[in-house]
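User: Before I run my own analysis I want an independent prediction to cross-check against. Here's the chain; please return only the structure tokens and, at the end, one sentence I can use as a sanity check.
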Amino acid sequence: MSATIRFVVAIAFALAAGGVWAAADPNKILRIASADIETLDPHQYNDSPSFDVLTAIFEGLYEWDYLASPTKLTPVEATALPEITDGGKTWTMRVKPGIFFTDDPAFRGRPREVTADDFVYSLKRWLDPNLRRGGDPIVADLIVGARDVIDAARQGGAKLDYDRPIAGLRALDKYTIQLKLREVNYPNIQNFLTTRVAAREVVEAAGGDIRERPVGTGPYRLRAWKRGSRVVLEANPGYRSVTFPESANPAFAPMVKEMRGKSLPQIGVVEINVIEEDVTRLLEFDRSRLDVIALRGEIASRLLDGNAASSALPCPSPTSSRSTSTLPTP
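Assistant: Structure tokens:
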């Protein structure tokens, strides 16, 4: 996750204290600030604010474990870390059975389980040179057979043929994905495997509206999005059983102890207010209209120096949080 909202999503997981709480207390509302976002399509974002929000809605096979020191790759929708053979050129991953997308009309009222084919489609979509990000040229060169498919999609206004097989990116069965590489490149392939999964039928049904129709498997789903104003996320009622992770890092020991065994997410609603200016964020925090702020640049330095913009303003740390009347403490 990231500086502002990725940090805040961790806060959203962790703010419950004491006692044994059921997941996603609807009375817990976390109010935060962000710059405006462009899209909630997990394969077409170009800006950090969009990425920070969609990481709460979408998941991948793996994610970086930020409670570990040093940070390491950890399974999310995979059953285990990749099985790496052939001197690092073959990577085999298995998807956990029983993970479902949130509801969408494209599913025709039926629960939609995530399969290996969904990851193959999503990974191909990440490589698509015609989408907003322009694909991933380094990974396209690494995967056996990918370059020919990518180059064909560039010619004469053609589109990527998602049904065309790529020898180095395929589903071996319902829950098994395999990558075959031309050469060893751990850092780029590890990042590639954090690509979020999407359902092809939703993408195709949404067409150009896909950036406003996020259908993922993550702990939150979109409740409302008013451009230039705010985004509201609500806990995914169908989210699988996930508990707070362990950590051997002594710096996180108190948090891990407090959260041990608790289901995630703990926060029922996350309200993301679009506030571009740090001074305005600080004022809203001072007025108890925001629960967490992450400040940048000069304003953070001034606060650390004890020189707030106004004598009426508090002097929190560059990232500050507190409980408010909308975040009841147990």
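Sanity check: Residues 1-21, 308-319, 323-330 have pLDDT under 50 and may be disordered.
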